[in-house]
Q: What sequence folds into this?
């Protein structure tokens, strides 16, 4: 929230980080997010921070959900490797060529669907939140700066924010 970039740039960065967190490229989420944010003129710091969505607690859920979604979209049978433990075992012990068709392709398709939807949601929520935070921050700074003069502080004290909150 305290990044000095525009709300749009921060939201694009968060969306890029969220999208990359859904990919099966473990260990490369930050690089992918930063590259995507850079290409889309988003904030790279926000992108790197948003990759924390994928963490040891959420990895199994993300892997299973992206695999199942991708298999459903592709119309492919789940091939019996739908549990997160089995997917991780395959990722550890097989070569890329052996992984592509049965595991990585469905996971990438699923990552596109689920990651894209999550990135769109993250963009909207972040844009709204950062705009509101930055407006309130600017207003507080103006109130502090002009408080000794009385006029602006009195005008600002009657102001309301877009969500209906009053300045306190």
A:
């Amino acid at each position: 929230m305290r990044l000095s970039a525009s709300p749009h740039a921060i939201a694009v960065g968060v969306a890029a980080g969220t999208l990359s967190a859904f990919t099966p490229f473990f260990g490369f989420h930050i690089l992918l997010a930063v590259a995507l944010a850079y290409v889309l003129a988003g904030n790279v710091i926000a992108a790197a921070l948003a990759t924390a969505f994928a963490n040891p607690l959420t990895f199994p859920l993300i892997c299973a959900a992206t695999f199942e979604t991708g298999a459903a979209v592709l119309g492919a049978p789940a091939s019996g490797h739908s549990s997160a433990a089995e997917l991780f075992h395959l990722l550890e012990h097989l070569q890329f060529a052996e992984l592509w068709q049965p595991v990585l392709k469905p996971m990438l398709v699923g990552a596109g669907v689920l990651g894209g939807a999550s990135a769109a949601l993250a963009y909207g929520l972040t844009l709204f939140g950062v705009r509101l935070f930055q407006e309130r921050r600017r207003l507080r700074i103006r109130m502090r700066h002009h408080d000794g003069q009385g006029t602006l502080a009195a005008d600002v004290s009657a102001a309301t924010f877009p969500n209906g909150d009053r300045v306190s």
